[in-house]
Write a structure and sequence with these properties.
This protein is an alpha+beta fold and about 190 residues long. The protein has one domain. Helix content is about 20%, strand content about 50%. The chain is built from three helices and nine strands, in the order αβββαβββαβββ. Strands 1, 2, 3, 4, 5, 6, 7, 8 and 9 form a nine-stranded mixed sheet that branches. A hairpin with a 2-residue loop joins strand 5 and strand 6. The longest helix is centred in the first third of the chain and has 23 residues. It is globular. It starts with a helix and ends with a strand.
């Protein structure tokens, strides 16, 4: 009996070590993807007016329940303008961007239902001095229009998404346009708190 328990513990530890080892063996090519994000601010009391663009070359995907007090699972896709090396990967695994996001980054958060289907998409666009966060799709019609390819099996995410978010042109406080164009096939890191 005692030998069986010891063997079970050894097998569990070996499986855990293999999982950590596989994650640490990933190279910057495992996170490579091209995506673009554009922000045009026509009117704002807070944001700098004009056009800015992020051309990203890497992305890091986590499966998380960090939003809404852990009640909803989501895919958080962080896009960066630089490659993701081993040190950056370790920082991202601890839920931080570190220095890789200092020149700008974008994040697309896909909220999921119980069947891992997308119910809402939020986009964050960050450059030095400017942060914009918007819900860019919250209806089935918007999701169908903006997401032309989606596959998620809790190990990999394949996503093709392109769209434009516009505030109402007659909005009193702020008029802006946020566009994105992404296509990726990347590993997913499970960060669900149990």
């Amino acid at each position: 009996m005692r030998t069986s328990i010891v063997m079970i513990v050894i097998l569990i530890l070996a499986a855990f070590a293999t999982d950590i080892s596989a994650a640490s063996r990933r190279t910057s090519q495992d996170f490579q993807t091209n995506a673009s994000f554009d922000l045009m601010v026509q009117k704002s009391a807070v944001l700098r007016l004009g056009a800015t663009r992020l051309e990203t070359q890497s992305a890091f995907v986590t499966y998380t329940n960090e939003f809404f007090g852990g009640r909803i699972n989501a895919l958080k896709i962080q896009f960066f303008t630089q490659p993701i090396g081993a040190d950056t990967q370790a920082t991202l695994m601890k839920r931080g961007e570190g220095d890789i996001g200092k020149n700008g980054y974008a994040a697309l958060v896909l909220f999921l239902d119980a069947k891992d289907q997308i119910t809402q998409a939020n986009l964050t666009y960050v450059i030095p001095g400017t942060t914009v966060v918007r819900t860019v799709a919250s209806s089935r019609e918007e999701l169908t229009r903006y997401v032309s390819g989606y596959y998620f099996d809790r190990i990999r995410l394949r996503l093709k998404s392109r769209g434009t978010y516009n505030t109402a042109p007659d909005a009193k406080d702020e008029v802006l346009t946020l566009t994105w164009d992404t296509e990726l096939d990347l590993p997913v890191f499970d960060q669900i708190k149990r």
